[in-house]
Design a protein that fits this description.
Blueprint: H1 5-59, H2 65-85, H3 90-96, H4 99-124, H5 133-202, H6 216-227
Length: about 250
């Protein structure tokens, strides 16, 4: 059975296109994994800032407002960074389908930080002899605990997201290996056979009858070549006067 060169290259092109697509998707997994590490660092830093502010409130409600405002502004800025980074998390959007949940968690965290900021400012504005000081102090503690709990919740979910990404990425990697092995082993043999057909058609002389042609196209070319009259290069077959080959109707006396 003769094989079609056109079909072989068409299938090879399909395999390489699938391979390129899988490699690109796998690259997106690694990019999102990189942003996941940055996400953990930002969330951990936010938790440390809340912890420092909360610890300073244990001793007194007297605090440097400029320092407090700068730390709260830093938390808001880092939450905004997380929201901006999430725009490029295509795997979470289209494959893992957890993008909406993650956005909701960030919005909730942003609101809890606002609650903590309001409770803290109310606490800082009280006089030391105010009767409501203990209540507002407890409110700030509770607000800080809620912020930390929300950050912990996002970090725990992020571990689950990373695990799912890792599992899918492994599957894609295995598919890439399978396709590479298939292309290397299966098509390497066919390309060698096509090259042998080209050498067979290119060569002159020798015993061509015992050569097995692999491709349909080479077989068709060979059949056309067989229909042509083979002209020998023997000088005795050339007329010395007209220099016309004897197959053209001339002969030597």
């Amino acid at each position: 059975m003769k094989h079609s060169i056109r079909k072989i290259f068409k299938n090879l092109n399909l395999f390489l296109s699938i391979l390129l697509t899988l490699m690109f998707v796998n690259l997106l997994f690694h990019v999102e994994q990189y942003y996941s590490y940055k996400k953990v660092n930002l969330l951990t830093n936010q938790k440390n800032i809340i912890s420092k502010i909360s610890k300073s409130q244990e001793d007194s409600n007297l605090i440097d407002f400029i320092d407090f405002n700068s730390k709260i502004a830093q938390i808001y800025s880092e939450i905004e960074k997380l929201q901006n980074q999430n725009i490029y998390n295509y795997i979470s959007k289209f494959i893992l389908d957890n993008n909406i949940e993650y956005n909701d968690d960030l919005n909730k965290l942003n609101q809890l930080v606002k609650n903590f900021e309001i409770a803290s400012k109310n606490y800082f504005e009280l006089n030391s002899n105010d009767k409501t000081m203990n209540k507002l102090k407890n409110d700030t503690k509770l607000a800080a605990i809620l912020v930390s709990s929300q950050i912990d919740s996002i970090l725990i979910k992020n571990i689950s997201y990373n695990k799912n990404r890792f599992n899918i990425s492994n599957i894609i990697f295995i598919l890439i290996l399978i396709i590479l092995l298939t292309v290397t082993i299966w098509y390497r043999k066919r390309l060698i056979n096509i090259y042998d057909d080209i050498l067979f058609l290119y060569s002159f002389g020798g015993n061509k009858r015992n050569t097995k042609i692999f491709s349909q196209e080479a077989d068709a070319i060979f059949l056309r070549m067989k229909r042509k009259i083979h002209i020998s290069d023997n000088p005795s077959m050339i007329d010395p006067v007209t220099e016309i080959h004897n197959n053209k109707g001339m002969f030597q006396a």
